[in-house]
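Supplementary Methods, section 5.1.

A reviewer requested that the exact input to the structure prediction be made available. We therefore reproduce it here, unchanged from the version used in the analyses.
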Amino acid sequence: MRTTTQAVIGATLGLVLIAASVRADDRSRIVGTWKLVSFDTEDVHTKARSDIYGGQPKGFMAVSADGRFHAYVLSDWPEPVQSVWEDVAKCIAVGTHRALYYSGKYRVEAGKLIMHVQHAQHQGWIGTDPFDTTWTEGRTPTEEVRSFWLAADERGSDTLRIETLPMPNPNGTGNTIIGGVTWERTSD
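The structure derived from this sequence is encoded token-by-token as follows.
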């Protein structure tokens, strides 16, 4: 009986150590510089998808081993301007580029990404900035749980998909959405 108990305890301890190493491996695998591929939401009920920053958003995210991250997202690269007046005109024109910068702390726990956005700043046409995955964290001191997946594509490039849990649409439309961001690893 004692040998059986010791075997069970040993097997359980082994599984816990394996699970801990997998989680640590996930954390080390997300460390680095990532290029933005997509930034979207999906309506939970209708499955309708919306590209928040357009079909070809621009942006990068840096994830450090010390548990910090920072990212920026642009709907498109700003066009060069010839004068201050042209710059002002482009800034107030409807449909100009939108941008988002956010940063904070993260940790990997139980296969989930726990993020605490400590700073979030939007730039764009006032009143039209869309939902983003930092909506709650930029306004409250709470941590937010994110699902994430790491995969390698046919070229061997790492892809990181981060999604919110289902949540009420913060734009007040009454539907439930999942926000998602897809990143591709860059050569650091």
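The beta strands are 32-43, 49-51, 58-63, 68-74, 99-109, 112-123, 144-152, 158-164, 167-168, 176-185. These observations are discussed further in the main text.
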